[in-house]
Amino acid sequence: MHQSMRGSSRPKTALDTKGINRDIQQSTDTLRAFSASSGIRQIEAVVDRGRLKERMSFHRHGRQGGDTVLSRAIALLAVFCLIPSAAAPAWGAGFARNCDYIVFADDQALADAVIAQASKYRKEIALRWLGEELPPAVGRTVINVTISSDEDRGLTLPAEGPGRQLHNIWLTTSRERATGSTLAHELTHAILATRYPRDLPVFASEAIANLQDDAERSAIRHRTISWFARTNNWPLLREIFEAEVISSVDSASYAVASSVAEYLCTLSSEPKFLQFAIDGKRIGWDQALRTHYKLESVEQLQRQWQEWVLRTSASTTALSKNTAAQAR
Ligand SMILES: [Zn+2]
Fold this sequence. Notes:
It is built from twelve helices and eight strands. It has 328 residues and is α/β, with parallel strands linked by helices.
C-alpha cells in the first residue's frame, strides 16, 4: 500500500495523505473547541476498518428558512480514507479537496460539483465585495454537505476563535442549492470573515450574504418589508446596526438588514457599503454615514430608507407575487 503512494500513477487523493490528515485534524480541533461552548452534544471518533470517521450530533435549533444552526443530527462530519490506493471513501460518500476547500458530501459527483462551484463563488464574491481575489489557501474552508429534499439550512463557523484554523460550513439542502444559492450565502460569510475577521457588524455580514439568496427567499423578505411599510411599523435601523447578535429566528431583522443594504447600494457601490459598515462599528454610525453617504445621522437614513421602501414596495410586491407563483 505505501509503495503505491510513491508511484507516479498513484491516485491523486492518495498523494498528500499527511496534508489531508492535517486538514481533518484541524477541522476536528475546530469542532472540539466549538463544542465546548455550543450545542454540539456529542463528537465521537470512530475507527472503522482503516477509516477514521468523526461523527457529531447537534441539539440546537435552526432558524426558520435562513442562516441556521443545524437542528437535527448531522452525522459524518469528517471522513478520511486511510487506505492509500482508494481514490474516494469506500462507503459511497464523496470527498474533494484543493488548496482552498475541503468538501465532504453524500456522493463523489456532488463533492466535485460543490468544490467547483465554491472555487467559482470564491472568486466572484471576493471581486464583488473586496475588489480583489483572496490569495490561494487564505481562508481555507471545510464544507460539509447533506442533501435534503425538504430542508434548506446553512451554518458557517468562522475560523476566528481559539483553536479554529479553518472556516467550517454545513449545508443541509437540495443538490441545486448546495451548488447554488445556499452555498454562495455561506461562502460569503466565510470570505468576509477571512478579510475582516472581527470588524464586520452582524447585520452587514447577513445583509451581504442574503444578496446571494434565490428569488424565493428574497420575495419572502420583500413581503416582510412591505408589511412594515403598509402598517407603519418601522423597525429602528440604529438597533439593527448596533445589534451584536441577531437571533437566528429573527427573520424580520434580517429582512431589514437586507433592505437597508440594498438601499445604500443604490446610493453608491457595494464595496462602499462594506466600508461604511466596518467604519460604523469602529467610529459610530452617524460619523460613518457622514463620511460615506453625506447623510447627517441614522435618523436621516431612517427617513430616506422608509421613503425608498414606500416608493418601491408596490412594484416589489407585484414582483414577489410573480416570483412566488413561478417558484411553485
Ligand atoms: Zn447568513
